[in-house]
Design a protein that fits this description.
The protein has 493 residues and is mostly helical. Helix content is 20%, strand content 6%.
């Protein structure tokens, strides 16, 4: 018995016919299009004759198929159209042509020197086309760890898509990476991530801003010079050093800065700020100025070592009140953007931001950086405007009213006991009763504490420098008894 063959015109299985048409359509997708470049909608490249469109595969440039694949991959949000014909693993699929079929087993095998950073690293940093970080992801996945062609990006790299740090070394640097690669960088380096150094950028861009290299969406802001960073930060700098013009500087700095003028590089010369020596050898700020700025070596009385009132303020440390650079320059020290920008611009004096501990009762402390150079609302000065930072001075033995005022408006205002009679009515100066010798020791012991200690104040009364007072016996709280020439016999304060 034989079975009669039916003509396709009489095909009675509509479901089977539909399946057959779909299959033919898929095959046709690999055989009828004649696009020669990336279209973001069509990857087809096989002519009816069976050959590829002109320029589709060119060695070693890659030809138009490489740019088409990359641009369509980006447009598709990480979806590769190559897999439609070459299979999900790109090893053949319905086309039976492997993307890794050359003799070296690697898609990039025909490119001489591809395994060297000078070749594939330079290609990866270019704008997307037959290059860019996204082109690596087509084969090796969004995380660069998919095994294709016998390897992953991590076969050679400990980090990807870039090589291990330092990334601003003298030979290879990330600074010439095309900005179009920023969306790939953003996968790991968004602000606040573990792969974004602290304070990068100092003011992140609003949510939804497209990733860019210098728009505050990644590490850097609008300032194209990638500062600030500590000089021992291996992310940006090679921690080895080299000597130039007798001064030792890290090679990572030399890529953007010459040590001294004249210079044709983008950054200011190192000795604009580091007038004494390399910051790698002259530590703790001394490559720029003394600590505190003193007017002595290394820069004399010129910026950045203008002494101002630094020395007497730092002396409060020995008096019992902890004072450091951060007390008045909170968050503005070495390694911050403001510090770098002001140093680069030679702007004197430096920015001031007081710790909240030293706010006066009348409000937040501030500094007038104009001609006045005066502090306001600092608790140590009773909230009153201070003399000029660079040219002014205070004699704490005789100018008490410059910091202390009667009443209760400030933390250090005097209002206890007989102050009203002695000072406001009789016009006595503070040193009639307060011994300046003792005052020099006890006056500045609790500046970080806005609560005035009666015991500290009482300890300054009487002594050789106050001959009108015969004896002073402190009591409890604000009380005490005074035996003085002006009123013999003990008198309650």
């Amino acid at each position: 018995m034989t079975t009669k063959m039916r003509s396709l015109r009489n095909f009675r299985n509509p479901i089977g016919c539909l399946i057959l048409l779909v299959a033919l359509g898929a095959a046709a997708g690999c055989s009828t299009a004649e696009t020669t470049g990336g279209s973001a909608t069509n990857m087809n490249h096989v002519l009816p004759s069976g050959s590829s469109v002109a320029g589709w595969l060119v060695v070693p440039s890659g030809g138009s198929h490489a740019s088409t694949a990359t641009l369509d991959y980006i447009d598709g949000g990480g979806s590769s159209g190559c897999t439609e014909c070459h299979g999900s693993d790109l090893s053949g699929g319905i086309s039976d042509v492997s993307c890794f079929g050359n003799s070296t087993g690697c898609h990039h095998g025909p490119v001489a020197g591809w395994a060297t950073p000078a070749v594939h690293g330079a290609a990866a940093k270019k704008a997307p086309g037959s290059s860019g970080f996204a082109s690596c992801q087509i084969c090796h996945g969004a995380d660069f760890r998919t095994v294709r062609g016998g390897s992953t990006c991590f076969t050679c790299h400990t980090t990807a898509p870039h090589a291990p740090r330092p990334w601003r070394g003298p030979a290879y640097t990330h600074t010439d990476t095309n900005d179009s690669n920023a969306p790939v960088c953003a996968q790991c380096h968004f602000p606040g991530s573990s792969n974004n150094p602290q304070n990068h950028p100092s003011a992140p861009a609003p949510a939804g801003t497209p990733p860019g290299c210098f728009n505050s969406t990644l590490c850097h802001g609008t300032d194209t010079i990638p500062h600030p960073v500590p000089f021992n930060d291996p992310v940006h700098y090679d921690t080895t050093s080299a000597t130039f013009a007798g001064t030792t500087f890290p090679p990572g700095c030399i890529s953007c800065h010459d040590v001294s003028a004249p210079s044709t590089k983008a950054g200011p010369v190192c000795q604009t700020c580091h007038v004494a020596a390399s910051p790698l050898t002259a530590l703790n700020c001394t490559s720029c100025h003394a600590v505190p700025p003193s007017g002595g070596a290394p820069a004399g009385a010129a910026y950045p070592n203008v002494p101002g009132a630094h020395v007497p303020h730092i002396a409060f440390n020995s008096a019992g009140t902890p004072i450091s650079c951060n007390t008045c320059h909170n968050g503005l020290g070495s390694g911050t953007l403001n510090h770098y920008n002001r140093a680069k611009a030679r702007s004197a004096p430096g920015d001031v931001a007081f710790l909240a501990t030293y706010n006066a009762q009348s409000g937040a402390s501030s500094f007038d950086n104009s001609a006045a150079l005066s502090c306001s609302n600092v608790s140590c000065h009773g909230g009153q405007a201070t003399p000029n930072w660079q040219t002014g001075a205070l004699n704490v033995d005789t100018q008490c009213s410059n910091c202390h005022a009667p009443g209760t408006a400030q933390y250090n205002s005097y209002n206890s006991g007989e102050h009203q009679v002695h000072v406001s009515e009789q016009g006595f100066s503070c040193t009639v009763c307060h011994n300046t010798t003792t005052l020099a020791v006890d006056h500045f012991t609790t500046l970080a504490d806005n609560t005035i200690s009666p015991a500290v104040a009482a300890a300054t009364i009487g002594g050789a420098e106050t001959p009108l007072i015969t004896t002073w016996t402190p009591g409890t709280g604000t009380s005490g008894t005074c035996n003085a020439v002006c009123h013999p016999g003990d008198r309650n304060w």
